[in-house]
Amino acid sequence: MDFAFWRAIAVFRIASLVYATVLMVQHEGFAHPVAGWTVIAVMALWTAAATFCYSVDAVRGWPLLVIDMLVAVACLLATPYVQGEFQGELGSMPVPAIWVAGPVLAWAVYGGRRLGGVAAAIVAGADLWVRVNGPGTPILINGAVLLFMAGIVVGHVARLAIRAEERMQRAVEMEAAQRERERLARGIHDSVLQVLALVKRRGQEMGGEAAELGRLAGEQEAALRELVTVRAAPTGSADLRALLMRLGSTQVTVSTPATPLVMPTATAEETAAAVRAALDNVRAHCGEQARAWVFAEQGDGEVTVSVRDEGPGIAEGRLERAHADGRLGVAQSIKGRVADLGGRVSILSAPGEGTEVEITVPAPLH
């Protein structure tokens, strides 16, 4: 899509160069034909050079944009000398004619409507100077208005088109990734998952060391099932569900929505780290075999993850004493992380009634 805009500018440059040449022939070179045809030659050479340069991503940038603008303004400022005393009689069209709109369009495509407006202001200012210094030249604002409209409208449309292309590319990538996951899921379901399920079941039946192997097989089966079913998130984003499901085990039950919890990768990773810290506290204070439940849900522009256990609860004042003693697990690993994300943490607990840590982080809807 980006290349299509630059190609359209190249076509405009060539067409406007032909138009300026026709005007030069029509008026027999104006008052100073040599200077006039020199301007046309410069325009032709720069049209060829700019058309090539703007088609190369590595060259397209600020140096080229500035040179483009300087060439156009220089050709425009040559108008009073080339046309001389005929400038007022020959109407309001300068020597380069509409060719000077090329840099405005280029700046607009490169930087959007704001940069297009800046370029239009520069060219319009040069055109006003030419008219003020021309003998009897009428002061018209039609050209300036058209330049501003072209710069702003083209810049806006170019930005919209580029964003649409990026979204389309992400959608194609997600669809391809999902098709690959489905292909792998079919093969894994027919082989690996069935074997893991069998090991889990037989291990539980046999007991002893085999039961531990069965437990590990069950954990890997759950993790593998999640891996092949969760959809890929857009580039630069992550699905929090996938990160939370990795925390599941025979002791930890993870429940997530059916739809993706998509958020920036850093936010998703820090949120999962805070949940992991909460689960570490469950194991540390309730025992290795303590049960815990993780529940995630999507709200209005935010995601809430709660971690609940059925342990002895937190005695009144214990968190404050831990902070005073320099033990900052809750203060830093959970509350600190979430605060850095612009979120909040609430802890509900009572002796003998377990603990629930509720983590809420901003997650704009996609």
Automatic annotation (TrEMBL):
**What residue stretches are annotated with the DUF5931 domain?**
4-167
Q: Name one Pfam family in it.
A: DUF5931
In which domain of life is the source organism classified? Bacteria
Q: Which NCBIfam families match?
A: HK_morpho_MacS
Cross-referenced InterPro entries: DUF5931 (IPR045975), HATPase_C_sf (IPR036890), HATPase_dom (IPR003594), Sensor_HK_TwoCompSys (IPR050482)
Task: Please provide, alphabetically and separated by semicolons, the GO molecular function terms listed in this UniProt record.
Answer: kinase activity
Q: Which gene encodes it?
A: macS
Note the PANTHER family from the entry: NITRATE/NITRITE SENSOR PROTEIN NARX-RELATED, OXYGEN SENSOR HISTIDINE KINASE NREB
Lineage here is: Bacteria, Bacillati, Actinomycetota, Actinomycetes, Streptosporangiales
Name of this protein: MacS family sensor histidine kinase
Domain Histidine kinase/HSP90-like ATPase stretches: 274-364
Entries under Gene3D superfamilies matching the protein: Histidine kinase-like ATPase, C-terminal domain
Q: What are the TM regions of this chain, as residue ranges? A: 30-54, 61-81, 93-110, 115-132, 138-162
* Keyword check for Chloroplast: no
Keyword Membrane among record annotations:
yes
Alphabetically sorted, this entry's keywords are: Kinase, Membrane, Transferase, Transmembrane, Transmembrane helix, Two-component regulatory system
